[in-house]
Structures are given as structure tokens and as C-alpha cells.
Amino acid sequence: AQSVTQLGSHVSVSEGALVLLRCNYSSSVPPYLFWYVQYPNQGLQLLLKYTSAATLVKGINGFEAEFKKSETSFHLTKPSAHMSDAAEYFCAVRDGGGYQKVTFGIGTKLQVIP
Amino acid sequence: NAGVTQTPKFQVLKTGQSMTLQCAQDMNHNSMYWYRQDPGMGLRLIYYSASEGTTDKGEVPNGYNVSRLNKREFSLRLESAAPSQTSVYFCASSGGGTIGNEQFFGPGTRLTVL
Predict the structure, then answer these.
(1) pLDDT band with cut points at 50, 70 and 90 for residue B96
(2) Which of A2, A8, A86, B96 is the most exposed place for a label (fewest CB within 10 A)?
(3) Is the CB of B50 inside 8 Å of chain A's CB atoms?
């Protein structure tokens, strides 16, 4: 069975500071991993995904994430936070099998302080 | 190309009333999903349809039914609404296959059951 743990349901950073959102997963097979972002009153949209190619994945809006198998982690980072990054972020895992059932973490709300 | 569309956007029901949430996608995706989002609980899968003609229960199916009307449309029905079903409901679709295809989400339906 697959699962996702997001450490910290709320994270606050100052504008211009490093953003680090943590995600650890468990999976019995090599996983596919995703980060989604949800802006207020909207649906989720994909930020980036890992599908067993490069371990460092670059996404939209300057975000990136590194797959670390030894740590079973897929943390999301951005060097410099912008006010527009305030949103809720979800990590998700999908086993690399034939069916596309995805398990989502509980989400991390990012607050950016001016 | 509208992506995933959901109707209605908002709905208020009284306990015991029934309603159907509609979802359609125009991306020719095989797989479709219904999730509910509640504070502190992330997204929980209600039902999914791996391909046209098939549906399966997810994590929280009780009180819901679904119909995969055709490849484009996947509806969610509440036969007798309860206050515990107050939530935000998201429909999603994905392309299927064994590569790490991401899910595309609709804008959500905000349901309140009084």
C-alpha cells in the first residue's frame, strides 16, 4: 500500500526566503510522485512530477523537487518566495503499476509574509 | 479545450434530499475520479472509473453512487444527503497507461447539507 506524509500543515516564509515543503512517501514498488498546487477556491493543478527519469525535477513557477530513494522523500523547494506562491500544496504518490490510483497527502498551506 | 468541467459550482441541500454532480472532460482520457476535500484531511477518493464501462469504490464510497455515462462524463449521485457530506467535491481525469500521467482537476463543487 502506498502512503504520503506531509510534514507541517502550515508553513510561513518571508517574501524572498527559501520555500521548503516536505513530503515522505511509502510505496512497495518504484513510485511516481507529484506535487500539486491549489489556489483559493480553485481545483488542483500540477506543479511537477517524478517518473523515474532525472531525480531533480523542475516545475512551473520556479519550483523544483528532488527524489531521494534512500530517504523516501520528495521535498518541494523554491529559492525565493513570492506573494503569489501563497496556496495549498499537495504531495501525491502513485505506484508504478498499470492502474492510476493516486494517494494524496493532507496538504501544506503556505503563507508568504511581506 | 475546456479540460474538466463540473456543475454545479455551489449547492445547498437539506438532509435527505438527493442530487447529482456532473463532470465532463474533453481530453479523451480513459480514467476519471471523484474526490472530496475536507479541512485537514486532504483529498479522499470516493469512486473512480479506470475506463469507460467500469467503476470501482475508493476510500469513502458510502452514501454515494456513480455513473460513467460515456468516455467523457462521470457523474456522482447523493441519494439521501447527510450533513457529513458537506464538503468540496472534485472531479479529475487522467490519460491512463503505465507512465506517470498526472490527473487534471475540475474547479470543484461546494456542497452544504443542512
Answers:
(1) low
(2) A8
(3) yes
